[in-house]
Amino acid sequence: MPNENFAREVMELFTLGEGNYTEEDVKEAARAFTGLQLSRFNGEVTENVRNWDNGEKTIFGKSGKYKGSDVVDLIFEKDACAKFMVGKLWEFFAYESPVDSAMEDLARTLRKADYEVEPVLREIFLSKEFYGEKAMASQIKCPVQYLVQMLKELEMDTAPIGFPIQGQIQLGQVLFMPPNVAGWDWGKAWINTNTLLTRYNIAGSLTKGSFEEGKGGGGMMRGMEGKFGRMRGNRLAGRNAAGPDFSGIATESERNDTKTLVDGLIVRFFSVPIPEKARASFVEYANTKRGVSFTDKELGELCHLMLSTPYYQIC
Amino acid sequence: MKTRRDFLRSAVLGASATWTLPVFVDRTFAELGQSAADSAVQFATGKDDTILVVLQMAGGNDGLNTLVPFGNDEYYKARPQIGKKAKDLIRLEDGLGLNSSMPFLGSLYKEGGLGVVQGVGYPNPNRSHFVSTSIWETADTTNRSGTGWLGRYFDNACEGLDPTVGISFNKTTPESFGAMRNPGVSLSSPELYRWIHGGGQKAEAEGFFSEMNQPMAQDATVSGGSIDMPAGGKTGGIVGESNLDFLERVALDAQVSSKKILEVASKHKTNVQYDGSPISRNLNLVSRMIAGGMPTRVYYVSHGGFDTHTGQVNTHDRLLGQLDAALKSFFTDLKQQGNDKRVVLMTFSEFGRRVSENASGGTDHGKASCMFVAGGGVKGGLYGKYPSLTKLSQGDLNHTVDFRNVYADLLGGWLKAPNIGKILGGDYKGIGMV
Fold first, then answer.
1. Where are the alpha helices (DSSP H) in B211-356?
2. What mean pLDDT, rounded, does chain B reach?
3. Fold of B47-194+207-424
4. Which of A197, A262, A284 to mutate to test the interface with B (most CBs of B within 10 A)?
């Protein structure tokens, strides 16, 4: 019998969802997919007729001498397929577990457009629900969004050496290397006690840069010396990182008033409202830090504190 | 009893800021009712108690090439290419042999320290990795439970709210830790398990754990298997939390557990050699936690790559060999510590594989498989009945033992949990292994 892995996963994970096909459908589809070949050099998929099972197959109650591309057509004719796909889009852009009826409406749009995505995206982005309370500040940033956004908010055009890959590894999302055939688990799966502490420490290594002279770049950078030192001999990764240019982040006059300073940073870092108590604590922290003036080093520590909060993980 | 969230809400600010400066910590705790603070940081009382280590073999381990019925011709008929020859096996009983990549488990069996459960599964099995993993992790065959079987154990059988009652070394929190009150914590490197702020707080645990902080092949794609470390489709946490509640609670759990884990991890140094595989590294960490006196009752580790649809034999043997080597180091280490009588390790996998090999020299998703239960507290030997190789269900083995009976054994017999019925959602009897 042919390997049934592709037939199963294409239905379960990418088009129909579990429960919308039978075990017989999987076995029969696997027969239809025989003869498909993938070139490892250029990624091209071809049909090798000599390896194809040319017998009759029954899939979703229909029978014929199907080949692989026929199975794809059969899948896309099923209502479950459009519904599954709009559900994925909605969860990515808005929030998890949307109501069923709304997804059916969107699925109709997708089918009507013959699976062209633009009309359904337009409908999502122009819907009232998309701007509703439930869709606001409801998502947890994925590691890549977290890393890229933080660099941008700190106005760093280039990341420190090793930072992008090390950040991805430690936070659990290495681009082009999903953990399994289903891709990454999203949302809450990004966060546990370990990855949350790691996010806080990555924020520390970025905001403090070379001020710590290689010490406080902290755990992450120490980890990196082990990992990358051997690979490319840059055991100083992180140590030479300059950190953000704080002169562009807060002017001298802004630094003279801690409330103004904190409020400016809140606008910079948080896309969602944060509790008043948090703001008060930031201000208090800034006040205790403030000596004769507010130096870049102290500003870096304040930024680190603000980024080391649950609120910063939300968007 | 105050929940951890009550504690959090009564705090001046979410966890992260409370640990930034001693002054914040002082003030935060001073403003709390003392009882709330106590319950949130009260440590579990299991310091000298029994410990369960759950080891996931992710991707669907082929029970037939792990525990091989070499006395049965049907086996060789179904697997002309990938079948294991009798001479290549470690003989356990008449007609039954262990894959020779596992010499340690073979000798443990002979010493009486290894229980092998044959034909484990559950009714109406599901062949999806993700659904079936969920079923094993929640112990709910209808796959509707929001909590995991270990989370329900933490909730129902463990005093206090110490989050370190369960520690997972997975990338994502296992679904089995999902709970109503206390879903445990996740860890990857104890040395980094703290908030590092400013140059003044150099690591207490620095020297000793730096060796642990070496590069690992953890993120390398495992060849031959499309499933490396599935998280089970869902993530363990507290049921019904909003994302912000969830983040605040995790931040507090991290804070509460950080200091303890750092302290404990630095206490023990082993001279037992562990090899470089991720499973070895993680079991090494578990042994250090145990040696250091963590009150943790359940540890969770994963070993991935068992989804062997193509060219199975080499991949499968290698994975079993890595597992065996890791277990050998782990149990040797525990023995040296004098903790070997306190620890039982259980393996599980979401399903076994099809009896017949496929045209790619591999096997497809199947049903029943085997489990190993190892350690000082185990009455060694074979449990359950090897499934028939002729009376199949859609080409797959029918189970002879329900996995919840194995769980019942470990919960009741080993962890001494009262109320197993509540944890497992039914009256499951143990199988007499511990």
1. 243-265, 278-291, 312-337
2. 83
3. Alkaline Phosphatase, subunit A (3.40.720)
4. A197
